[in-house]
Design brief:
single chain, 109 residues, 2 domains
């Protein structure tokens, strides 16, 4: 999916008009429309603002990854990176156990 289509899809999911998104990111609705039609490409700064407003990572917005990471998850990951190595290991052990349990449960259903 190209950048323009991704912006349209995410904007509609948030129920933002072009004008509303433009106001949030510091441009106009008309310019947002041009991004959506792939007539122009946003600067890195504006793309970063669009990603933030739509609560996705910049990588997801520009198609570098297919994995959408919502803002709440990203904030949690950032908090984990601030922990001590021992605390991080405990978090990862818990996550690994939970993921394994979820996979087993899914396989049995």
């Amino acid at each position: 999916m190209n950048l323009g289509k991704k912006i349209v899809e995410l904007r509609k999911q948030k129920d933002y008009s072009r004008d509303a998104l433009g106001k949030i990111v510091g441009t106009s609705g008309a310019v947002i429309g041009r991004y959506e039609r792939n007539e122009i490409t946003p600067s890195v700064e504006i793309a970063k603002n669009i990603a933030s407003a739509l609560e996705v990572s910049l990588d997801f917005l520009v198609g570098s990854t297919k994995q959408e990471i919502d803002k709440a998850t990203l904030n949690r990951v950032q908090e984990v990176t601030k922990l001590s190595p021992k605390e991080k290991e405990l978090v990862f052990e818990f996550l690994d156990a939970f993921i394994t349990k979820a996979k087993v449960k899914s396989a049995l259903m």
